[in-house]
Amino acid sequence: MADLQAVIVATGRLVAGARRLSARDGSVLTQLVHVAHDEVGDVLVAVPPGDLQRVGVRQGRRGIRVVAGGATTTKTLEALVASGTSPWVVSLDVADGPVTAEVVRAVVTSAREHGVAAAARRSIGAQYRPDGSFLAPPEGAVTPTTPVCFTRQDYLDACRGDVVPEEADPSPVGILARAGRRAAFVLVPSDDPESCAEAADVVPAESRDVVTLATVPLVGRDRGQITWSFDPRYGSGDTEPLERMVRRLVAMADLTDVETVVGIPEAGSIPAHVFAALTGRRLALASIWHADRPDVIAFREDHDATPIGVKRIYGLRAGERVLIVEDEVTSGRTVVNCVTALRAAGVIVDQVVTLFAVDHDEMRERLAGIGVAIHAAEWVDPRHVGGLWRPGADGTNGLPA
């Protein structure tokens, strides 16, 4: 496609070390580059400046350039778009996981008809407006993802004229929408990457008004708990949407040499069971159970001040590589505590996957500081999660209210 360029953002949410940016056939970055190159031909990839020399995604192919990214995902994408000359751009983000050639083609075709188009998945949880009123039931709205296709000039005009309100959506879809360029959505019917080839339904952009996840208060915590509609702890829930979210995480994770899946209770144990079953890995669950055993690895769940806030893991050995599974990552402090304890015992860990993660630089920097990559099925804006953070005794709790 001579009038189209693909740009791939591998900065910002990609909190990764060398393993995630490697040229392994299974890595998300390599998969995105190969699909984009096969479909578009001209591919521009932005990676963290320190990774320029070791990102092996070129594979000897012409038409693939790797450049240093900027301070934020939004600034990086703007710079990539501005550096090109093709009238049309298709944007992909490593944080959104792998895509298929069929999805790329469907989004590009829709964009040429409607001006802007993006892939989208049916949302997993119930959704709410900024004032807390109910918006849509589970599966009743769509959540945009990449690829997004738009004209270069529209996007640059939108960036120059963008007045960013506090609750603004920083994604390409959000930036273009604030400039009056509403996207059509190509619905990805399943989170199984192999079934994305059937994506074809165009969903009007007006259906998108997704801003808030509900929370429930929990005794003994300094914050609430993100509510997900299929959480069986607060009522019966369907297993099918949980499995779809976990399949998305399986596609994102680098499972090379991973022997064991570690679930952090309570709710992290639920997706951990599913993840281990889908990948054929062993399963270890942190627990409040305290046994007098030499192989115990103990850490504290940061936001739980009760006696059961101390969690313990048994049965792991030094040199074993594990992957942590959570239901939600907010401040990231519990993950840091867990990783620190695991490493002190000689266990190798450099990834966490989670159903929900709060999209905040401080959390990502906290995990990047210990060399841990995070992959989330759903990213949540911290300003749009009602009641998630409540001030602690010192007036803070790691992230803004």
Written description of the protein model:
With 401 residues, the chain is an alpha/beta fold. The protein folds into two domains: 4-207, Spore Coat Polysaccharide Biosynthesis Protein SpsA, Chain A (Alpha-Beta Complex); 215-384, Rossmann fold (3-Layer(aba) Sandwich). It is built from nine helices and 19 strands. Strands 3-2-1-4-8-5-9-10 form an eight-stranded mixed β-sheet, with helices on both faces. The longest helix is centred in the N-terminal third of the chain and has 14 residues, at 101-114. It is elongated and about 65 Å long. Residues 12-26, 191-213 and 386-401 have low confidence and may be disordered.
Based on CA atoms alone, the radius of gyration comes out at 21 Å
Oligomer: single chain
Q: Number of helical segments?
A: 9
CATH structural class of the largest domain = Alpha Beta
**So what's the overall shape?**
elongated
CATH superfamily of the largest domain: Spore Coat Polysaccharide Biosynthesis Protein SpsA, Chain A
Taking the sheet with the most strands, its summary is: 8 strands, mixed
Number of domains: 2
Q: In short, what is this structure?
A:
The chain is of the alpha/beta class and 401 residues long. 25% of the residues lie in helices and 24% in strands.
